[in-house]
Amino acid sequence: MATSNAKTIASWVLIGLVAVGFLLAALGKLTGAAAPMFEGWGYPSWFATLIGVLELAGAIGLLVPKTTRYAVFGLTLLMLGAAYTHVSNGEASQLARPGLFLVVMWVGLWLRGQANRN
């Protein structure tokens, strides 16, 4: 029982941290601050807004237990797209954030599944 509670708490902390990270990332895109970066990568400026909306929806989805799994899958696709963008633009040094988000998100989801099994 104590192990299950610890896993539940750890999963909420990890998922919560990633949700805050995606919320902050979304704000930069939704305010238009990230549009020049997206244009520099060859994307239209509206694409930054779209990604911001998806990140915001994903951040909210992470915090709703019934949608956490779907949010993780959707945000994983976004992070893979971000990784592709960085690599294809010679910015491999920028892979740490998407990689960190992916690892923390998936560990949080795994812990939640482990806690629910006990």
Topology of this structure?
Elements: H1 2-30, H2 35-40, H3 45-63, H4 68-88, H5 96-117
Helix pairs in contact: 1-3, 1-5, 3-4, 4-5
Please characterize this protein's 3D structure.
The protein is mostly helical and 118 residues long. It has one domain. It has helices at 2-30, 35-40, 45-63, 68-88, 96-117. The radius of gyration is 15 Å and the shape is elongated. The mean pLDDT is 94.
Q: Which terms summarize this structure?
A:
118 residues, mainly alpha, elongated
Summarize the structure.
This protein is an all-alpha fold and 118 residues long.
* Overall 3D shape: elongated
Count of helix runs: 5
Largest sheet: none
Structural class: mainly alpha
Total number of beta strands: 0
Task: Tell me roughly what share of residues is in helical segments.
Answer: over 70%
Mean pLDDT: 94
C-alpha termini separation = 7 Å
Estimated share of beta-strand residues: under 5%
Number of domains: 1
Question: What's the helix-strand series?
Answer: HHHHH
Q: What Rg, in angstroms, do the CA atoms define?
A: 15 Å
Task: Flag low-confidence runs.
Answer: none
